[in-house]
Structure formats: C-alpha cells, structure tokens
Amino acid sequence: MGNQVDYFVIKAKENGVNVIGLTRGKDTRFHHSEKLDKGEVMIAQFTEHTSAVKIRGKAEIITPFGTVETDE
C-alpha cells in the first residue's frame, strides 16, 4: 500500500453543526459544506483540493494528534 492517509472524525454535539471544506491554492474558498445533527458522525480527510476545514457549532473533532471540542 502507498501513502498512509490520516482521517479525522467530526461528531456533532448539537443539531445544525456546519462542516465547511476550504480549497488549496492562491485563493482560499469554500468548496463543500455539510450539516450534521446531534450524534451524527462525519469521517473526513485532507485532499489535493481541501487544505482546511471550518467547523461551526458544538462538535468533537478526533484527529491522529488528539481530540478537540469546540467552545460554546
């Protein structure tokens, strides 16, 4: 198998958590958006098109580097 890809997990702690993917390149732009409800989980990864992810709402983010929760 080639390169190992690190995934991260976003678990919504309330309804209406927004997960927004941001592009790579000269101009950083929104390119994808998902809405999660309480208890829903999204498994994501960074790609050649996605350089950052913005999370709006109460959520738990689990990464290879540790777990983080958004503030209220």
From TrEMBL:
Domain of life, per lineage: Bacteria
Database matches in SUPFAM superfamilies: TRAP-like
InterPro entries assigned to the protein according to its UniProt record, in alphabetical order: MtrB, Trp_RNA-bd_attenuator-like_dom, Trp_RNA-bd_attenuator_dom
Gene Ontology MF terms in the entry: RNA binding
Pfam family, one: TrpBP
Homology family: Belongs to the MtrB family.
Protein name (database record): Transcription attenuation protein MtrB
Naturally occurring in which organism (per UniProt): Shimazuella alba
Encoding gene, per UniProt annotation: mtrB
